[in-house]
Amino acid sequence: MALDLSAVGARSAPVEHAWTSDDALLYALAVGAGQDPLAELDLTTEHTEGVPQRVLPTFGALLSQKVQRPDIGDFDRSKLVHAEQHLTLAAPLPTAGAVRLVAEVEAIHDKGGGALVWTATHAEDLDTGARVFSTRSAAFIRGEGGFGGERGGAEPWQRPDRSPDEVVRYRTRPEQALLYRLTGDRNPLHSDPAFAARGGFDRPILHGMCTFGFTGRALVRAAGGDPDLLASVGGRFTAPVVPGEELEIRMWVDGDEVLFQTLRGDGTVVIDRGRAVVDSARAERREVSP
């Protein structure tokens, strides 16, 4: 079994994908919204008086997974873990819509004990061809390194030397992964104990993308509670989360930029080097739009 290093630059066939209001509502519930049934009603309901439905921005990262990624070779899928996720939105996602998705293998880096595979996905509006969102994600595959390739680098990031400007805590539910998989991610690492054991875990773990969604909810808090203002979010997954554990999101706000870390209840950082951008001007543009 081996990675196909020539896959760098390979692009998927375009795929059209549509979503409905129900899909956006299910996603919000799958990443913990609704545990307080009187909060986040803009994310969890579509007919609350005076509260129009909005879409949690990290839903875009889920939509990016609806395209088949280019083949990168033959390897043990139980050795693959999601390493990084980045999302940029050109505008707030509508509650229902359709896009054309294309995925491309950007790079395969040699990390010695494993390989880091970067894939970019771009989504365009079916009618106008305008960019809706784009993502970059990295998968780390244990045991597939040592082929002599470049190690790759990382953007500079340093945690501010002060207390967080905002801290948000959420408790995941014991069945969180079973609920999140209904959004379309049926990776058995998150439900099958035997598959999880082959990956080195003593029980199924929570989807990294679910933790990403919990974090997105906290970042909306930093955006004044308006999900439409979150323009980009990204970070590195550094440790697993077991369904039922508490998450703590620490945020440092500097103008429209938010640096963040997500931690487990025991203090372990599970998303590191987090960076988000709040586009506060979107609210003004929304007010003047016809």
Describe the structure in your own words.
The structure is a single chain. This protein has 290 residues and is of the alpha+beta class. 18% of the residues lie in helices and 34% in strands. It has one domain (2-288): Thiol Ester Dehydrase, Chain A. It has helices at residues 21-30, 41-44, 59-63, 176-180, 193-198, 208-222, 281-288, and strands spanning 2-3, 15-19, 73-74, 80-89, 97-110, 114-125, 131-142, 166-171, 230-237, 246-254, 257-264, 269-278. A ten-stranded antiparallel sheet has the order 2-5-6-7-4-9-12-11-10-8. A two-stranded antiparallel ribbon has the order 1-3. It is globular, with a radius of gyration of 19 Å.
Features of this protein?
Thiol Ester Dehydrase, Chain A; alpha+beta; 34% strand
Query: How many separate domains make up the residues?
Result: 1
Contiguous low-pLDDT stretches (5 residues minimum) are: none
Indicate the CATH architecture: Roll
What is the CATH class designation? Alpha Beta
Number of helices: 7
Question: Which strand-content bin applies to the residues?
Answer: 25-35%
Residue share in helix: 10-25%
Q: Overall pLDDT, averaged?
A: 94
Shape: globular
Radius of gyration (CA) equals: 19 Å
CATH superfamily: Hotdog Thioesterase
Provide the structure class: alpha+beta
Count of strand segments: 12
Main sheet makeup: 10 strands, antiparallel
> Widest sheet: strand order?
2-5-6-7-4-9-12-11-10-8
- Alpha-carbon distance between the two ends: 56 Å
